[in-house]
Structures are given as C-alpha cells and as structure tokens.
Design brief:
heterodimer, A: mainly alpha, 2 domains, 14 helices, B: mainly alpha
Chain lengths: 331, 105
C-alpha cells in the first residue's frame, strides 16, 4: 500500500517538474512549485518524517509561494524566451545529474539497518533522550538540545538572509510609493470590494495565530517547534497584509520593530548559551539552568524555541514587506 | 452497528471519490471559466466533505474525529470563499458567465 502511495506521489512530482519546465506563464509556474512542495511534504509524511513535512508544507507551500507571487507583482508575468538554445548548459546539467546519480549508488538503501547513520550517535539519541532531555518528541530533543549549536547556526543563517534581503531591496521609495498610490486613487478598494473574503480572513487570522502558538509551545510533545510556528505566525500577518494593505500592516508592526524582534530572537538563543556558560556548564548545556537537569532542559528548550520562533517570524514578515513595498516602484 | 458504520463510511468515501473524479473531469471538459470553477468547487467542498465524513465514521469517538471535525469546518468555510473570490475577480476582469462556446484557456 505504501509502495503504491510512494509511486503515485513520485509520478506526480515528476509530472509537476515537467510541467514547470514546459509552461512559460510565471504565475502557473509558481502555483505548480507550490504543488511540488506539497507533494514533497506528503512524501516526507509517508517516510514518517512528520517534522520535516510540516516545515516543508509551511515554508515551501505557504511562504515561498506568497514571496514568489509578490515578486512577480514587481516584475513580469511572462517568461522571456532565451536568446539561443543553451545546449552547453543542458550538457553540464546532464553530466552533473549523472554524476550525482552515480554517487548515490554507494549510499545505503532507505531504511537499511546497517547504514552508518544508524550506528553512530542515533542509537544513543533514541535510547537516552527520554532520560537525558525528557522531551516526548525526539526530533525536538535532538534539534534543540543535542544539536543546539547547529540550530543556533541555522537561526543565524535565517537572520543573515533576512538582513541581506532588506539590505539589497530595502524600503527606499516606500513613502513615495504610498503617496503615488494615493495620488492615483488606488487605495485598498481593489481588495476592499471582496467583502466575503475580508470577513472570512478576519475570522481566520486569530485562529492561524493561535495555531502558530500551539505549534510553538507543543513542539516538545508533537511535531512542530520554533521554525514552523514562526512561519505560520508570519503567514497570518501576510494574510492581513494582502487583505488590508501594506500601510495598515506596517501600522501593526513597523519594519524597524520587526528588525529589533529578529535580533532579539537570535540574542535570546545566544543568551541562553552564555547563561549556561556563566552557570558553569558547557555552551547550550541546559542541565545547569535549574537544579533538576530535566527541568533545566525543559526551560532551555522552551527559551531557544522561542528565540527561533520570533526570529523566523520577523524575518519572514520583513522579507515580505520588503518585496511588496517594491511593487509600485516599477510604474 | 459495526457493520453499519463500515458500510456507511465506505459509501461516503466512494461518494467522495466519485465527486472528486467528476470534478477533475469537469475542470478539463467544461466550456468556460465559470463552469470549470463550478467543477473545481464541487471537488473542494463536496468531495472533501464526503471523504472527511467517511473517515470520521471510521475513527469513532476519538481525538482523530475531533481533528477531522476541525479540518471539515475549515474546509466548509475556506473553499467556498476561495471559489467566490475567484468568481468575483473573474467577473470584475470582464469574464461573462454565459454558456458561450469554448473560450481560450
């Protein structure tokens, strides 16, 4: 049964990739890439990697699609045809692909119990995480406790990415854009006419934010955690922006505040590490935070997940603001 | 009781599958945008509703049923809204809901 599902999903993946290749309407391509991510997420679920699937669904299908849509808002909806047929590029891609496929021949089969990855540190994580970290979700305990340093790196990567996007695109011309819009008589009327949409979105935004908080604080026990929660919280905000306009959204939280919140998240994460150093443990060794090591682990994971969540949320919203404030500058 | 539940859920799920397939065929075969939208929204609401209801009958009084209930509620509100927004946008962009011959996709 699982084999049939896998084969079907992989066939759909291939078909979607082919369709993306053939179509030259960028809008369709973005929708198809969203579908591609959703299919990937379903594949991850069938491999029992629920946390990864959750992230893929939230990031790939949700945020990435919206960001790409706001990008084509600033550019063109039609793909320009290449000046010549890039045969050399095709050759390079085929050769690289062949080498990669050849490389996978040496990899152990999926789920092979003799694979090296199942003999290094994984057995200890699986057997000891209940006693050492005490979190029900082993993925969370690996991500935020055993591998806390790596996750700090990932958070800093997201932070840096957000900073670079804002640095490259920036918010220059924002004021002018607002003025020009008002001068041209374009206020939020275009979307404002959608009364039904307005009401339904108003109804859903609190639910989305609540669900994000649930994902954030329930990460110890089920799939989820700071990354997913941040993205879902950001998508609630993006919904609001799409419906009520950039000005209204920026009145809720300004880009400046967002950049402070993003920095605060990374600082929370690093601060927990420094605190554990000062209290006599290793960097990000949460055992020393409380007299009882398990409680210390719980507190540490809670704090760093909060840091991750706030950083991811504010960076996602910042990137979206930067992209969509760019929209009107073209005219 | 057990047999009845299994029977009812099978009926619901097969009904949902039927609606899904007809919706998919409709998206390809219908003549214009609004007709196609109708086919798509049949899949969105009817098919999803039937499938979820069938699954609920199978899972009985458990946490899964409550989660399915929430998904059902979400679908009930969100998919008609999406269809409505699409139709309204198409209308304001000048598409006419007539039974005119096949238009360019």
């Amino acid at each position: 049964m699982e084999l049939i599902i896998d084969i079907t999903l992989l066939t759909f993946l291939g078909l979607t990739a082919l369709a993306i290749n053939r179509i030259d309407k960028l809008f369709c391509i973005i929708m198809l890439s969203g579908i591609y991510s959703l299919l990937c997420a379903s594949l991850f679920v069938s491999m029992d990697a629920v946390d990864v699937a959750f992230t893929e669904a939230a990031v790939g299908t949700g945020i990435a699609t919206v960001l790409l849509l706001s990008t084509i808002g600033a550019t063109d909806t039609q793909q320009r045809s290449a000046p010549q047929r890039p045969l050399f590029a095709l050759l390079v891609v085929c050769a690289t692909g062949a080498i990669l496929v050849y490389g996978t021949m040496d990899m152990p089969a999926f789920g092979d119990p003799d694979a090296p990855i199942h003999h290094h540190v994984a057995p200890r994580y699986l057997e000891m995480s209940q006693q050492e970290v005490g979190s029900d979700n082993i993925v969370t305990s690996i991500l935020s406790s055993y591998r806390g340093f790596d996750t700090l790196g990932e958070t800093v990567v997201i932070f840096t990415a957000g900073l670079s996007v804002v640095g490259l695109i920036g918010f220059r011309g924002m004021q002018k854009f607002g003025d020009r819009q008002r001068a041209a008589g374009i206020t939020q009327d275009d979307m404002g006419k959608h009364l039904v949409l307005r009401i339904v979105i108003k109804m859903f935004i609190p639910l989305i934010l609540l669900f994000a908080l649930y994902v954030q604080f329930h990460g110890d026990f089920g799939p989820g955690g700071g990354f997913q929660a941040g993205v879902i919280f950001a998508s609630g905000f993006i919904f609001y922006t799409l419906m009520f306009g950039l000005d209204a959204a920026m009145r809720v939280v300004s880009p400046r505040t967002l950049s402070y919140i993003a920095a605060l998240g990374v600082l929370t994460y690093g601060g927990v590490g420094i605190t554990t150093l000062l209290m006599g443990g290793n960097f990000l060794d949460y055992n020393v935070l409380r007299p009882d090591p398990l409680q210390g682990q719980h507190l540490g994971i809670f704090l760093i997940e909060l840091g991750v969540g706030t950083t991811v949320f504010s960076i996602m919203v910042l990137i979206f603001f930067a992209f969509s404030s760019r929209k009107g500058l073209r005219q | 009781m057990e047999t009845f539940l299994v029977l009812a859920s099978t009926l619901c799920i097969s009904m949902g599958v039927f609606l899904g397939i007809t919706g998919a065929i409709g998206i390809f075969r219908m003549p214009n945008f609004f007709a196609r939208l109708h086919a798509a929204s049949v899949t969105d609401s009817g098919c999803a509703f039937m499938l979820l209801f069938g699954l609920m009958l199978q899972s009985g009084f458990t946490l899964a049923t409550i989660k399915l209930c929430f998904i059902l509620l979400f679908f009930l509100i969100s998919s008609p809204t999406a269809a409505h927004a699409l139709a309204k946008t198409a209308l304001s962009c000048g598409a006419q809901p007539t039974s005119s011959p096949r238009e360019e996709r």
